[in-house]
Amino acid sequence: MGWSMLVITPLTFGSNIYVDPATMPGWLQAVVGVNPVSHLVSAVRGLVHGEVAGSDVVLVLVWAAALVAVVGPLTMRRYRTRI
């Protein structure tokens, strides 16, 4: 749980949850643009407001699949070696 907080906290604060990216410096806008949390927030906001952002939903699904594909085998390998 501690490791996940080390990853999730910077991703959350480096996203568009709290601040509009248009008010950020250019280098931070680039970081926010590739942040998976930003895509998730944009997709949820679009769905809640009835403005379905299909590209954001697809990006969220791609990010989720990529994270599972990378972290899943690593987690299972670590689990097998600890038991």
UniProtKB/TrEMBL annotation:
InterPro entries: ABC2_TM (IPR013525). It holds the Pfam family ABC2_membrane. Keywords: Membrane, Transmembrane, Transmembrane helix. Residues 4-47 form the ABC-2 type transporter transmembrane domain. It comes from the Bacteria. It is a multi-pass membrane protein. One of its GO terms (cellular component) is membrane. The keyword Lyase does not apply. One of its GO terms (molecular function) is ABC-type transporter activity. The chain crosses the membrane at residues 57-76. It is found in: Membrane. This is ABC-2 type transporter. It comes from Geodermatophilus amargosae.
